[in-house]
Specification:
The complex is a heterodimer of chains A (411) and B (324). Chain A is built from 14 helices and 17 strands. By secondary structure, chain B is α/β, with parallel strands linked by helices. Chain B has an eight-stranded mixed beta sheet with strand order 2-1-3-4-6-5-7-8, with helices on both faces. Classes of the chains: A alpha/beta (411), B alpha/beta (324). Bound molecules: thiamine diphosphate (TPP).
Chain lengths: 411, 324
């Protein structure tokens, strides 16, 4: 497929090209520009075009990497674990059942402290089978020890993956990083993306820093067996690395913003300064949420919105700073934890974050958009109105399922 | 034919260097450990070993110790083929872009469960894609690490904890899976069987296999008896392993670029009259203590059939077997 090259608006030297691509392609371009050494690929909708694009780059000699067209996602991540352990910079992407099929290896990749970077085009999980976008797969990775970023534009997918290599390979971190983006809504939507100059990327995320690898001149054993006397301490090191990653992620964001003239923060606010209510969201619905806030403002409701760019480690401090004054916060999740006290996975995180800082702001858990049911900005506007019209603690008692048809009321 | 490889004629042609330290926790006379030790003597030290979950892994890598004198990685039970594929690809890639300057060989050393069953898909993928990896299967004919459960490599009638010999069911109902034929069907350059009781043959097969890795994968299926799993005392290990070949139960042969060659001494045992009685092998192990003479006859028939199959393959390959 050929690319539409749009003339660059800004003549900054670090911008190599301005192209119209999807988030899937943005992920592939980022991995290519990060000059990965090994790619393992297995197709699954809606991620497939990402690995197809990687295959094309390699087939055309645009990227000199080894390409492993594996026989399953389980093998995709296994192969990358091997390649990363042997010192290579690696990439793959997946979705839904593919991610769940990798599940065992997610924990092994982080446990072995391997700086693997993976794209996740988020999707609903079977059964019933749905190839469409929501965040159920993403939610399942919460405890896997991966750094988990959430992008909400194709540019951000590209930028986050470049940042991801520098975060993952930092010796204070050495953890795998997942960069997620909405299946279809982003993975298949064409947007303008500015690609950067190769030397600048190389300088920003240099390859092959000093980390333990499988090298026959200095033999080490990886993946040893830990008895009860040792497992806990080794696991604790991973927890520390996750804590350390927060500082590194902040540093990398600052460096990225400086190098590439961007303005990324771990948590992005919209009209929050004088707001009474905050709607918290993540991923591709951000535009709709902002629009709903505009709508609410027109009606005189002081609403604001907030977007999370990071799920693990959870950006508690940044979040609290922005929402501590709110009367109520509502979290829109596109995934669910059936039977939990608060059934939205990110809503739980927000409630926990507030509680951990001694705050008792009511958190309204809202689930919407499962299996890619369309989330309209009018739905979010309605949500803001409900919050404005209700006693907040009445709304926190049960999760709000927006957009779901009730039984016997299908018409 | 294979590239010129230096073949060992006696133990003096095998290095005294040890790459697997004696400080491990395996049972005495463990066939898996002996396999690994011999394979490393033949292949080391410029190797990276991938080992799926199993006895070999848990007995050699108890943190903070390790028995491995070469780089070693354990990832999971079912993915050794895929992990090795990734390492091989990384070595290629890093050599290509100049950041690595050594052609380190990638070895898998895997149990029967990790090969015949749960690991079969990853193995098949690796073979099909043609990664230059030597995959060594140490076959102790059951899941020994979890306490002797049935695997696809467990022979018929053998007793395991998941297929006990009861009053109705006589141990494992099915025949042992023919893993070599599955591997050969991938038409890789080299595959062979070996037996810890024939160490020089084993070492030479490893050397030969390594010489093929620039063309694609190689596979060696090693019979590695397990004293507690099979039910015999430690000092009998080699004797029983040898009987497996002498009775035709575990024939030694090679698949060398699409030609099947039956190796000595198994070529001689193609003649049924020269084989030792299977009964001797079966009755020496408690996993078969319930087996009747009638059932042994059935097992013997299976061996005849299998050796005939091998014989036909070797004739078809145009390599006459000296003994008929
Ligand atoms: C997915 C998964 N299922 C089950 C296990 C439990 N398990 C660990 S080792 C093993 C058996 C290993 O058997 P084999 O490959 O024959 O090697 P051996 O122990 O005989 O050396 C099993 C079932 C596991 N580790 N992973």
């Amino acid at each position: 497929m050929s690319l539409t090259v749009i003339k660059s608006r800004i003549g900054r030297e670090i911008i190599r090209d301005r192209v119209a691509i999807t988030s899937n392609y943005a992920a592939a371009y980022a991995a290519k520009d990060a000059e990965v050494d090994v790619v393992a690929a297995y197709p699954i909708t809606p991620q497939t075009p990402a690995v197809e694009k990687m295959a094309e780059f390699i087939a055309n000699g645009e990227l000199s990497a080894e390409y492993i067209p594996v026989e399953s996602e389980h093998s995709a991540l296994s192969a990358l674990i091997g390649a990363s352990a042997a010192g290579a910079r690696v990439f793959t992407a997946t979705s839904s059942q593919g991610l769940l099929y990798m599940f065992e290896l997610l924990y092994i990749a982080s446990g072995l402290r391997l700086p693997i970077v993976m794209g996740l085009a988020t999707r609903a999980v079977s059964a019933p089978i749905s190839i469409h976008g929501d965040y159920q797969d993403f939610a399942a990775t919460r405890d896997s020890g991966w750094v988990i970023m959430i992008a909400s534009s194709a540019q951000e997918v590209y930028d986050s993956i470049i940042m991801a290599y520098r975060i993952a390979e930092d010796n204070r971190v050495l953890l795998p990083v997942m960069v997620s983006y909405d299946g279809f809504l982003m993975s298949h939507t064409t947007e303008p993306v500015e690609l950067y100059d190769a030397d600048t990327i190389r300088g920003f995320a240099p390859k092959r820093l000093n980390r333990p690898i499988l090298d026959s001149s200095k033999p080490i054993t990886m993946g040893a067996m830990a008895v009860p006397e040792w497992y806990y301490e080794i696991k604790y090191q991973l927890i520390e690395a996750m804590h350390n990653s927060m500082g590194v992620i902040r540093e990398v964001h600052d460096a990225f913003n400086r190098t590439f003239s961007r303005n990324y923060r771990l948590v992005e606010g919209y009209m929050l300064d004088d707001a009474d209510y905050a709607v918290i969201a993540y991923g591709g619905i951000w535009g709709n949420v902002k629009r709903a806030v505009n709508e609410a403002r027109k009606r005189g409701i002081k609403a604001g919105a907030l977007r999370l760019r990071l799920f693990r480690p959870f950006p508690t401090d940044e979040l609290i700073e922005m929402i501590s004054d709110m009367k109520t916060v509502a979290v829109i999740d596109r995934a669910v934890s059936p039977g939990a006290a608060i059934e939205g996975p990110v809503a739980m995180e927000v409630a926990t974050a507030l509680h951990s800082r001694g705050l008792s702001t009511p958190v309204v858990s809202v689930v919407h958009g499962l299996g890619q049911r369309t989330v309209y900005s009018r739905d979010v506007a309605k949500l803001i109105k409900i919050i404005n019209d209700s006693q907040p603690w009445d709304l926190t008692k049960s999760t709000m399922y927006m957009g779901v048809r009730e039984y016997g009321n299908e018409g | 034919m294979a590239m010129k490889v230096k073949l060992a004629k006696s133990f003096f042609d095998i290095t005294r260097e040890e790459y697997l330290a004696p400080g491990h926790t395996a049972c005495p006379a463990c066939g898996a450990l002996l396999t690994a030790r011999l394979v490393l003597k033949a292949a080391g030290p410029d190797v990276i070993v991938v080992n799926p979950t199993g006895c070999l892994e848990v007995t050699t890598t108890i943190y903070p110790y390790t028995a491995w004198g070469v780089p070693y990685i354990h990832v999971a039970f079912e993915n050794a083929g895929a992990v090795a594929s990734g390492i091989e690809a990384a070595i290629k890639s890093l050599n290509k872009n100049g950041s690595l300057k050594r052609n380190t060989k990638v070895l898998v050393i895997a149990g029967d469960g990790g090969t015949y069953d749960i690991g079969l898909q990853a193995l098949s993928g690796m073979l099909e894609r043609g990664h230059g990896v030597l995959y060594v299967l140490y076959d102790n004919e059951a899941y020994m690490n979890t306490g002797i459960q049935r695997s696809g490599g467990t022979p018929k009638f053998a007793r395991t904890t998941t297929m006990p010999a009861g009053t109705v069911i006589r141990g494992k109902i099915e025949k042992k899976k023919d893993i070599m034929s599955i591997v050969m069907a991938h038409h890789i350059p080299y595959a062979a069987t070996a037996n810890v009781a024939f160490p020089i043959d084993l070492v030479n097969k490893v050397r030969k296999a390594l010489s093929y890795l620039n063309e694609g994968p190689a596979f060696i299926h090693v019979l590695a008896p397990c004293p507690p799993g099979w039910g015999f005392s430690d000092e009998k290990m080699i004797e029983i392993a040898r009987l497996a070949t002498e009775t035709g139960y575990f024939p030694l042969y090679e698949w060398d670029r699409d030609r099947l060659i039956i190796n000595p001494p198994s070529d001689m045992y193609m003649d049924k009259r020269l084989r030792k009685s299977l009964r001797e092998f079966v009755k020496a192990q408690s996993r078969w203590s319930h087996v009747t003479d009638e059932e042994i006859k059935g097992l013997e028939k299976d061996i005849d059939d299998f050796l005939n199959y091998l014989w036909r393959l070797s004739m078809g390959s145009g390599v006459p077997t000296p003994y008929a």
